[in-house]
Give the backbone structure.
Amino acid sequence: MTMAGSACGKVILVGEHAVVYGVPAIVVGIDHGATARAVRLPGTRGDSELAVRVEGLSAASIAVRPADATDLGAAFSALLEACGVTGAVRVEAIADLPAGAGLGCSAALGVAITRALLALEPGPSASPDDVAHRATAWERVFHGNPSGIDAAAAARGGCMLYRRAQGAVAIEPITAARALVLAIGSTGIAQSTRTMVEHVATLRVREPERVASAFDAIATLTGVARRAIESGDLVLLGRAMDDNQRLLATLGLSVPETDALCLAARQEGALGAKMTGSGGGGCVVALCPAGAEGVVSRWQRDGFSGFSTVVGANEAR
Ligand code: PMV
């Protein structure tokens, strides 16, 4: 029997990078994500096959086996292990998110595949946190030191405060008083999360006080943003996003295309705009309570691509 799993992508409203070092961040699941289907094959785990297609990246699927000496092969192997798969399986997965864009594409794939694999086993379905925990084995191959925020958002959806502290994870669902209308724009530059996380780690060694003070300021902004979301004060939330963008730029994470997208969004009425995810390219997220169409059209006129999404009142699972 073929079993299916799905997961959402994400945008981080406040706190990326700082979250790797224990600062709380706010993340929302979006309605673009990944789906996966798994079926048993004759043979043992090593005979398993994975075919992945990322829309916009390649027309054909990329096929791997767990023993392949590629990141995808290693991630598949790690996930089979984390899901306790012993026999052979064939998995097909599709993401409708750009890869390397800060929208949690790899986590969405990891979570969707985890769900499809776990569904092959009899018994009750796994909790979102269990799924996210297993999918982190996949994420670790691509990201080195993932905070786990992408996998948590992919597995739960909705809006949440995420914090990693001393090896444990704390997640608090946030109930939005007003729906968050977001425009998401792409710089068109794919970037490696691992590279950007390593950039911050190097900066932290070289200039510990500067990075610590930026992270302290980001922690304050996370608190402000949480209260703003809960009270429906979107002007305050937009300001926190803008302030977060300025801090990320001081850490060398923004590129001119990011700045151009953020500026255009604000000129078209967005209340705040910032990069989302690891930066160095990737995407920006803009808060557009009056509607995201004007911002997305402006980006398109400026030669960028974008789409809109709405995060409603608390949808976290
Ligand atoms: O994978 P990305 O580009 O969406 O970035 C995830 C957020 C980071 O804080 C940069 C890394 C992490 O693991 O938290």
